[in-house]
Amino acid sequence: MAVPALIAAALSACSPPALLNRLDSVAGGGAGVERAGQGMAFGSHGQTLDVWRPRGGGTHPVVIFWYGGGWVSGRREEYGFAGRALAARGFVVVVPDYRKVPAVRFPAFVEDGAQAVRWTRDTIASFGGDPERIALAGHSAGAYTVAMLALDPRFLAAEGVPAGTVKAGIGLSGPYDFYPFDTRRSIDAMAGVADPAATQPVNFARRDAPPMLLVTSSDDTVVRPRNAINLAARLKAAGAPVELRNYPGLAHEEVVMALAKPFRGKGPVLDDSVAFLERTLAKR
């Protein structure tokens, strides 16, 4: 199928990640990059991950990218477009899977995220990544994992990850301030939690948090912009480095779509993310 026809099909089908990934590949999103690891085991629950990197060798800063899906869906294979986009800009990119609801509830998916950070810290040098320059990024439920790992130090400490390992975090359209739980997804994901406040990233804002870029969009009706706005305000009040971007006219899914090559005209999500990463991961 020709690229224009594929794009039309993607739009008519609300661009599910697998089709979006295919579109990106057809449009040349993988130029200059390679998948250096596929389905690699990590953690203690049968999790797997992929590794993308620039071709040509060298040592590069690292981004761990978690996909969204409301804690109930998503597969690493479908998010190669995110790995390729960042790898093409000079990063080694880890895309992990994690356990989903209803098989697990909070905090299992965040614990899986911490195990992915531990694997990356211990292993990424063999893929050309610099373990001293690791950033976290994610969309939607994946951005929630980013925020929890960046702000609540207990998760990484439990996996033996040294303090200061995470140098920066990017949250795309993430839920950070959503209690009381009022959607089926959040109710199911946080079911049985004894202390709901402990599920909310906004409650862990601290002065010594790594720099964060929080992205939202005016037409996001899935995860309301107030989530990013409230967390950015709380971090700023604490004296932590934080940047907020609110893209006009973009819906929730379009923010992550803008990482894929055919849809980058929707908004400067990739350029803004890369500029932030280059500032925060620069060698000192």
TrEMBL record:
Residues 1-20 form the signal peptide. Keywords: Hydrolase, Signal. Residues 49-235 form the BD-FAE-like domain. GO terms for molecular function: hydrolase activity. It comes from the Bacteria. The keyword Transcription regulation does not apply. Transmembrane segments: none annotated. PANTHER family: AB HYDROLASE SUPERFAMILY PROTEIN C4A8.06C (PTHR48081), CARBOXYLESTERASE (PTHR48081:SF9). This is Alpha/beta hydrolase. It comes from Sphingomonas qomolangmaensis.
